[in-house]
Design goal:
single chain; mainly beta; four-stranded antiparallel sheet; three-stranded antiparallel sheet; 7 strands
Length: 130
């Protein structure tokens, strides 16, 4: 799953979470899109290592000229260290929002809370196919 996606200070950010099943640790290679499907800010690849039943995480951060705010993001593909696509397991809870909202809007900023991007469908690795 990927979540906690936002732009702040010229940096686009997203957090990737994986949780393998089985009895051995896995390293997953995850392709992540930051931004809209029709106009992505970036498509990045991250490696995430996790032990069975534990949640592994990796952050994606890329420079951008996009204004600060919430950002859509999605997992485009995921494979384990053998190149196999894992089987989807139980959904993971999304990562906590680490982009704090300002206490008061600045000049010219809209008042009230920002509207988060529509959360993507979770992709949760369930371990390698056997």
């Amino acid at each position: 799953m990927v979540g906690d996606c936002f732009v702040r200070g010229g940096q686009a950010h997203g957090r990737v979470l994986v949780r393998p099943d089985g009895t051995t640790p896995h390293t997953f290679t995850v392709r992540v899109r930051l931004g809209l499907e029709s106009n992505p800010i970036a498509v990045e690849t991250v490696r995430v290592t996790a032990s069975p039943g534990q949640i592994g995480q990796a952050d994606v951060t890329v420079p951008t000229q996009t204004p600060d705010g919430s950002l859509q993001c999605a997992v485009l593909s995921i494979v384990d260290e053998t190149g196999a696509s894992p089987v989807m397991g139980e959904p993971l809870p999304p990562p906590p929002d680490s982009n704090p909202m300002p206490a008061q809007p600045g000049p010219g900023a809209p008042s009230g809370p920002s509207v988060p991007a529509t959360p993507p469908q979770p992709i949760v690795p369930g371990g390698s196919p056997r």
